[in-house]
């Protein structure tokens, strides 16, 4: 009888296992033959991920959120000293490090890539962008206009060319100053010096009407380019004037002797300041945009080497006169 009972139990266990195998096979077959939307729904139910309305607790930081809420309430209730606030920030940083967790996270964060990993697609597209040609500014390789310039002095230290605000170019050719209108292309003669003299520098005023002319005979002339008339002549230098610079009504002129004279062209006694700081020729002058500093270029030891020195205009400040 006992052997019969054991055989019966073994037969029952075999039948139960066969039923489990058949049910598992049937469920897998039904899942495989089910529509795509039904398979996705079944997978979502079996997955531990949260849906769009219920946050995922594993990716959220409930403790940190509770601390932030209570800390803000406590700070609003009582005013803490700066030392206490610093202590609280340090303690919060130790207890709740910034690990990037959100208060309410609805999905798991993507795992970080291994150190040194590069995506093939990213490398491909970045290489394609780097190789693209950039649009640059077009620089013409030929001159827009070529003008004849006979008797142009071959002297590096002269400043015989200047462009005005009214689009007129003044150029000194020997002892004569010519004006070329860039808009119309017309050329006119402004002035001429004596036969034993030549023009060493020209400089336009900002109004585009008046132009200063420095000569080899140590004089500075101011001309009205619209009326083609000389306004005045100023002296004071001991040698040729090769550098000119305007600062409103103040005209700075530098000569070969190294002297720089600031002239107020509105008054008869024009020399308002004289700077005797150099022994070599002054071959360049330029005022700053605010009119407070003057840069000058000076020949050093008769060589091509030049230096630029800034001097404060306050040393020779000019008071306005009526």
Looking at this protein, list some descriptive labels.
4-stranded antiparallel β-sheet; alpha+beta; 5 helices
What structural class do the secondary elements suggest?
alpha+beta
The counted number of beta strands is 15
Identify the overall geometry.
elongated
Strand order of the largest sheet: 1-2-3-4
What would the average pLDDT be, to the nearest integer? 75
Low-confidence stretches: 301-322
Tell me the series of helices and strands, N- to C-terminal.
HHHHHEEEEEEEEEEEEEEE
- Over all CA atoms, what is the radius of gyration? 45 Å
Portion of residues within helices: 25-40%
* Number of H/I helices: 5
- The end-to-end span amounts to 141 Å
How would you describe this protein?
There is one protein chain. The protein has 322 residues and is of the alpha+beta class. 26% of the residues lie in helices and 28% in strands. The protein has a four-stranded antiparallel β-sheet with strand order 1-2-3-4, with no helix packed on it. It has a four-stranded antiparallel β-sheet with strand order 5-6-7-8, with no helix packed on it. A four-stranded antiparallel β-sheet has the order 9-10-11-12, with no helix packed on it. Strand 1 and strand 2 form a beta hairpin. It starts with a helix and ends in a 10-residue tail after the last strand.
